[in-house]
Amino acid sequence: AGYEAPRTPTEEVLAGIWAEVLGLDRVGVHDGFFELGGHSLAGMQVVSRARQAFATEVPLRALFEAPTVAELAERVEALRGAGVDAAPPIRRVERTGPMPVSFAQQRLWLVDRIEPGSAAYNLAGALRLRGTLDVAALERSLEALVARHETLRTVFAEQDGAPVQVIHPPAPVPLPVLDLRDAPDAMAEAERLAAEEALRPFDLARGPLLRCTLLRLADEDHVLCFTMHHVVSDGWSRRVLTREVSALYAAFRRGEEPYLPELPVQYADFAAWQRAWLSGETLEARIGYWRAKLADSPPLLELPVDRPRTLVQGERAERHAFTLAPALSQGLHALSRRERTTPFMTLLAAWQALLGRWAGQDDVVVGTPIAGRTLHETEGVIGFFVNMLALRADLSGDPTWTELLGRVRETALGAYTHQELPFERLVEELAVERGLTYTPLFQVTFDLESAGAGEALSLGTLAVEPFETGAAVAKFDLELSFSEGDALRGALLYREALFEAGTIARMAGHLEAVLEALATDPGRRLSELSLLRGAERTQVLESWNATAQDFPRDLCLHDLFAGRVRRSPDAPALLFEGRALSYAELNAQANRLAHLLRRRGVGPETRVAISVHKGPEMALALLGVLKAGGAYVPVDPAYPAERFSYVLADSGAALLLTQSPLSERFADRGVPLLALDTLQDELAAESSEAPRSGVAPENLAYVIYTSGSTGQPKGVAVPHRAVVNLALDMAARLQLRPTDRLLNFASLSFDVSVEEIFTAWSSGAALVLSSAELFAPGVLRELVEHEGITSFELPSAYWAEWVRELRASGRGVPGSVRFVRVG
Length: 823
Fold this sequence. Notes:
39% of the residues lie in helices and 18% in strands. It is built from 26 helices and 29 strands. A 5-stranded mixed β-sheet has the order 8-9-10-5-15, covered by helices on one side. Strand 20, helix 19 and strand 21 form a beta-alpha-beta unit. Helix 6 crosses helix 8, helix 11 crosses helix 15 and helix 12 crosses helix 15. The two termini are 53 Å apart.
């Protein structure tokens, strides 16, 4: 942001240090300016000279704010010592034919080949011009600009399978003028045309790669649209363009021949120099640093997205703008001074901490653009110099904010010192893991534009102001940028194919929370940060948790079933392969089994194992155990013998209900067996009235065992009251009616079956069972259609397969279905 020398007794000492750093005989200080070799330079000019000396972008604020002159000198020497050999100067190359492309240009040429017609790398802008515009002077200014900068008259040809630069001679630059004075809504039409122009693709082989269009709203009201392809330009280049067009227009407007100092080199010279310099040992030295820094870095930042990644993400982007409170902005600058970081580093630390929290990762890589103009010859050249640095944050160990700032500062300093390696070569040399749905190394970026970094276009007496086109394209998933001023202004550019506006707005709010915590209490640890504030905190902690509602707390599961028996005894409770059992019939059979079980010692808290195939006997066993007061323990007949034995022993089952074909398998398990299909005579002698079991809502209803994938399976014991609450709530959510038919898809040993079975019976609906293998193609649809099933629940993986099956067959979801729950 620049620096004005302090008026202290140490001024001359500081000036002496700068003289040595910059390689000058003398540096004086006068009225806030450095006197360098007879030239009075403001802070930014000193920074520019310092960059030349260091051959790197050093965060100079850290040098200026060192507490002592001695520490300043040490820091200067440390930074110089940490660098690599300075780059040689750029020399002009003879133009004898096509010129080589830079590494960055080669990447964009390849991108254009893969995605022809993409506007992702268009650099567009528009300006509102009020006043008397000299169109001829503007045209001459653009023509002089293009004649001055070879890259603006360059196209890209293919030679031996690789791109080369073909530089055309100077020629007139077309400036089409579209007259909108008679349009019904000139402003709306101008906005449409400006957005359309910004997104119009370029042809890299034919050019031109700079387009300008003038929209005439009124006699003294115009919009100037200009678009360049990134392959020949960058953000710095836009400032060069505005500065030089301003000077050229002013001269032509006065009827004078403009004068601009001759450019020492052109971009083609830089490309040839880069190719020659970054090779051999020079290249390996720089790659070695980045190879160590990025070893085993995560290929993808796993941010929660609103829409799934696809092979074609699209380039459409939206922008969310926000402004930090002035007090917070000042607090962050004060923190930066105390911690000897630049505002860039401070904001980057907060951004990486937030990304780590959202992604659940403690290893976060963020990209940042850097000007790439480390040599003074390139400062006034229009071209694609910008480079991307991969800044990796280590969030492990739950550091304090102060500790994180220190880590980020050292990472940034090292990255700036080794910035010359083009991002394209870095990706190539590291052989990083590639994905078709995300960019390599990083998918999120950060940038900070210092106060006064931009340059306004001045066209004589015209009033010039930015004209928003509303057009935005995405190169990455998320791009955060800040600009400095009285307050920090932020913008989040996000890929519309992945994120919704509400998600990004919430992320911006969370970022403000992070920055507030960082500024007010940097000694706290990252884990102590709460992202929730204001309305969002109220919503998450209060509104979403205000779910309490009354339910019959004095009922057990079998009481819900009995209530439906009283209301609709003849309605079907169970459908199984052409057989139907009404609520009254199933209730009577279950009561008889309950009496038999009571005489076998079953009562409250008694666990009874059930291992039967799907069918009426499964439903009978379930209800019979509950009515007797016991808790059922489902054991899938397909379980291995070891798991079966473990569940029986661990649950303390007092009895096992099974079927005679399975009895031999379960013999000698130490648990008494009852084969349901052999009890007809005994059950016929029992009462069909419900027994008095003494069971209460707090008693166990069932015990279901976990998969055991993380160790020994664990039995989860659930009381009646919890399942009554679940069943009634789910029935209300699904708006179930007695005419509905619900499929029992899950195994009895999977707790989803509890929801399926008792939700159906608590609402008076019919439960549909099937012995068929429902995972087989076509079986589920046939069952749904045949039984008129209205609701069912599927595992998400099976749902995806079923959808593909339905699409392939050209038949949609059966018409009877009202609800499908996917879990």
